[in-house]
Amino acid sequence: MAATLSNNMNNIKDVTKFMDECKRMGLEVLGPDVNESNYKFTVNARGAVRFGMGAVKGLGHGAVMTIIDNRKDGPYKSIFDFAKRIDLRNASKKAFEALALSGGFDGLGAANRAQFFYKSDNDQIFLEHVIKYGAKYQENENSAQVSLFGDASEVQIPEPQLPQCEDWGTMEKLKREREVVGIYISGHPLDDYKKEMEFFCNTNVSAFKSIDQRMVGMELNFCGVISEAQHRVSKSNQGWGSFIIEDYEDSFEFRIFKEEYLTFQKYLIPNSFIYCKVKVTPGWRDKEGRPTEPRLSFIKMEQLQSVMGSYAKKLIIEMNVNELENNQVETLKEVLDKHKGDHRIDFLLKDYDDKIAVNMTSRLQRVQVTNELLGLLDGLDITYKVES
Question: What is the pTM of this model?
Fold first, then answer.
C-alpha cells in the first residue's frame, strides 16, 4: 500500500482513495514526521504506513532531502535542533509552515501546532524566530575560531522560548492540515459526530448524485461539514443560496431558494457542522409536459452539535443473558446513575442459545443520552442503539 500511495502521490484523489482502502484493511496511516518520513510513503517499524514528505504542498525536493540527510546523526530533538542542523538554503519559511501545518513537527515537543504560528509584538510568527535562530547558529558555527587545542569552539546561542497559547479547534487544525496535504490525515471534522451519523442519518452526501423518480416522496436525513457557502440574489431580487456539504465519502453542492432560503440561510456558514432533513419532490414540467429531475425540498436544518439533544428519545441496551456478570451489571448501573435525565431506557435481553429475546423498559431509571455516555458504553463493550 505504501508503494501504491507513492506511485500516486501526485494525484490527491488517488491518495485519498488508497488511504481509505488502508483504513478499510485496518492499516494505520500516519501523517508526515521529520524524524521518520522519507520522500515517498514508507512503512515504519510498527507496521504503519508513514506519509511521504514529498506529498506535502510547499515542501520541495531540496527541503525533504536536507531533512533526511541531516538526521543520519540522530533524530531531531526539538524544533530548534532541527533549525540548527538542516541546510536552511533548501528549506524556506514556506517549507517550515507546511511541515508545521501537516504535523511534521508534532513529535518535537511543542504542545500544539498553534504555537508555531503565534504572532509576537513585531507581528512575526514564531516559526520566523526559529528560522532566524537556526541561521544565526549556523553563521556563528561557520565563523567560529579554532581554539589553541585544535577544537572548534562551541557555539552558544540561547534558544527562543516556545510561546504559550491555546490550540486551534479541531476544525481549524484539520482545515489547515488539508490546505498543505490535500486531505485530512490526523482525523476528520466529523469524527466527533459518528453517533449522530449512525443513529439519525439514513443516507450520505453521495446519494444526491443519483436522485431519480423512484425516490420521489422519500425523506432523507444526512449531515456533514459546509465547506463552501454563497448567498446570492436572483434577477427578480430574491435571495437564494448555494453550499457544498462534505462527509467522509463525498461532497455535493446544494441550492436553496425562496422561503426555504429565508428560513435556513443562517445555517449556511463555511466550516460549520450541519444536519439536514430533505424530501424528494417531483420536478417541474418542461415545455413538452415531461417531468424534469426530482427536486429537494429542505424540511429541517440545524447545527449538528444539537442533534443528539434534539432527537434522542430512548436508549436501548442489548445484553446476552448467557454472558451477564455481576461486576458488569454493577459497572453499567454506576455509569447510568451518573447520567440521569429524561430519556427512557429499554433493556433487550437475548438468549442466543434458545433464540429468545425479552424487551424490558425501566420504570424508574431514565438517562440523558449524550456522546459522553455512549462513549462509556463503548468502553464497556456494550451493544446499544439510540432511537428518536
Answer: 0.73
